[in-house]
Amino acid sequence: MIDISSFQLQAVKPRSVEAIASSEVYRFIVGPEKKEYDIHSAVLANHSPALDAMVNGGLPESGDRIVDWTDVDSSAFLSL
């Protein structure tokens, strides 16, 4: 499993409800149990610079909007 406890998370800037509601939805597949979470990209981008880069920076995950984090523990993911 990947240890995500060292991720530095900080709010980037507030977003309007309209911006959040109209943003693309990303599906995270998390943990060995492959639990699925659908999260708006504006929420992810606002949560941390690293997640902002993931959804807005042209990384492979930004194209298909599916992020496979099966090596991350679900409880750790939910604590982000």
Would you mind describing this structure in some detail?
With 80 residues, the protein is an alpha+beta fold. It has one domain: Potassium Channel Kv1.1, Chain A (2-Layer Sandwich). The protein has five helices and three strands. It is globular. The chain starts with 16 loop residues before the first helix and ends with a helix.
Helix content: 25-40%
Order of helices and strands: HEEHHHEH
Radius of gyration: 12 Å
Give the amount of beta strand, in percent.
Answer: 15-25%
For the report, how would you describe the main beta sheet? 3 strands, mixed
Distance between the termini: 16 Å
CATH architectural group = 2-Layer Sandwich
Q: What overall form do the CA principal axes indicate? A: globular
The top level CATH class name:
Alpha Beta
- What structural class results from the helix and strand content? alpha+beta
Detail the poorly predicted runs: none
How many H/I helices?
5
CATH superfamily: Potassium Channel Kv1.1, Chain A
Strands of the widest sheet, in order across it, are 2-1-3
Number of domains: 1
Kindly state the number of beta strands: 3
CATH fold topology: Potassium Channel Kv1.1, Chain A
Structure characteristics:
80 residues; alpha+beta; Potassium Channel Kv1.1, Chain A; BTB/POZ_dom; BTB domain-containing protein; SKP1/BTB/POZ_sf
Topology, element by element:
Layout (H helix, E strand, L loop, with lengths): L16 H5 L3 E6 L4 E6 H7 L1 H8 L3 H5 L1 E4 L4 H5 L2
Parallel strand pairs: 1-3
Antiparallel strand pairs: 1-2
Helix pairs in contact: 2-3
